[in-house]
Structure prediction request, 354 residues.
Amino acid sequence: MLNKALFFSITLLVALGCAKAPEPVWDTAPYTLDFGGLPEPELPADNPLTVQGVKLGRMLFYETRLSGDNSMACASCHKQENAFTDTNRFSTGIDGLDGHRQAMSAVNMLWNTNGYFWDGRAQKLRDQSIIPIQDVLEMNETMENVVEKLEQDTLYIHQFFRAFGSEDISSYRISLALEQFMNSIVSYRSKYDLFLDGEATFTEEEELGMELFFEEYNPYFPETSGADCGHCHGGKNFSSQEYMNNGLDSIYNDDGRYDVTGLESDRGAMKVTTLRNIELTPPYMHDGRFNTLEEVIDHYNEGLRNNASLNPALAMTMGTGLMLNETDKDALIAFLKTLTDTSLIQDSRYASPF
Prediction:
C-alpha cells in the first residue's frame, strides 16, 4: 500500500508540474476613473482606459528594461513622492548626462489639452511617452530593443494579450499603455478641494492668499490690487494650457515654443504648468532656476525681465511690480500649499507593481 501511495503521489506531482498554465484572457473591462470636482475629462476615443491597459502601463512606467542599460524607468525621473516629477534641477540619464530642462509633473494629464513637454512638441501623450526612452540624454534605448526585451518575458506577453487581445508587442502598444497609466494619475484631493466641498477650513492666512491669487492686478488701487495668478493658472487644474513667455530673461537662453512653431511671438514661451502639488515639485521653471516658492513670487513681484515676446498681462505689471508685501507673499505661499494632495503620493494604484 505504501508503494502504491508513493507512486500515486509522485505521478500527481509530475502531472501538476507539467500542467500548462492557463492562457490569458482579453479583458476590456473599463477602468473606473476618480476625478472629484475636476471637470469631466475627454478620454481618447481610440485608447479608452481599461483595467488591464492601465495595469500594463503601470508595469511599463516602472520597468527599467525600457532603458539602454536596464537601470532607468520613467518613474526614475517622475517620482510618486514628488507628484511624479524630479526634484533635481536636471535629471541625469543612464550615461551620466544631464537633460536640458526640468522634468515636468505627470499628473492630471487628462486635463492637458494643448501638447506635451515644455515646448509642446508632442501632440499626444502617447507620443510623449516614448520620446524619453529614445533620447540619448535620458534612457538612450531604441524601441526595437525594448520590444525585443519585453518579448522574452512571459509576464509581459500575457499582459499585452489581456490589454490588447493578442501577444503582439509593439512600440505603438507600449505608447498606448503608458498613455493609459499616466491618464489614470489624477490629483483632486487637496485641502483646497476639501475646502470647496465644505470639508476643510482655511486659516486667515490661507484665505488672504486665495484672495490675492485670484484678484486682478490694479495699479490704480494698490490697496485692493491682487497677484493675478489666476490669469495664467486658472480653472480647477490651475493651468491655462497656453505657452507664455514669463520674463525670465531679457536675452533668450532657451527658445522654447518657438522651436516648434517658428513664430517670433513664441520665442522663449513655455507651457503654463499646473500649480497642483507645487509644494512637492521644486525646483521651479523650465530650467529649475528657482529653488523655492519665495523665489518664484519674488520673480513675479519685482524680477520680470523685459523682452519682445513677454506676455502682455505680465508686461503691464513691470512699472510697479505686483506691490506685494511680506505678509502678502507669505499668504500666497500658504494658499499654494493647500493645493498639495498628500493622498496622491500615498496612493497604491500609482506605486510600483514590482
